[in-house]
Every structure is written in structure tokens, then in C-alpha cells.
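Sharing a chain and its predicted structure for anyone who wants a worked example. Both blocks are below, sequence first, C-alpha cells second.
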Amino acid sequence: MWERLASELVAIIGQGGFDSLYSRSLHLAVVTFPWLAAGYPSQQAGSRFAGLQTSLEGRDFTEASEASIALLITFIDILVTLIGESLTTSILRAAWGDDALDIAVKDSDNE
């Protein structure tokens, strides 16, 4: 999910722009889930989200799900603030399709 979103956004804002948004989102999520600190992006090709994956795998399903959802919602909220809801929705649809976007919006509404 993150790789597809990164692919769409990197094409628009570049790798540095994506990494900045992701790092800011992670920084905010770490306040609630300190163990996510290991999830900062790796500079090695093909392992951008290896730290996040390792952090999530080390937790039980419920805790990992809550942290993952919080991180994603934070990322989307920042993106909406910067570029607006319409453009954000278009990017999310391009990355995930309508079904995945509907799930993400539903999870966001439940927060």
C-alpha cells in the first residue's frame, strides 16, 4: 500500500518531497506509538519501508493495525492540508483504486 502511494507521489513531488511527508507523519505517529521510530525511511534502494515493516511485525495484530492506520491517516491529513482534498483523493485513487480508498476513508471517519 505504501509503495503504491509512494510511486504516485514521487512522480509528482519527487523522492525528497515524499520522504519529507512520510518522515513528518512518522514523527507525529511516534508520539502515540514510540516503537514506530524504527520505521524511518531507509536510504537503500528497494527498502524504503523496511523499518516500518520490521516495527509492525514486532507487534501484535491489533497494535500494529492501530499504528499503521494512525500513520496513514496522519500522512493523508498532511497531504490534504498541503494540496487539498480533491487532488489528494485523485492521487489516492490512482495509487489504490476506489475500493482501497473507500476503506481508507471509512477508517479515517472512525478515528
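Comments welcome. The chain has a mean pLDDT of 86.
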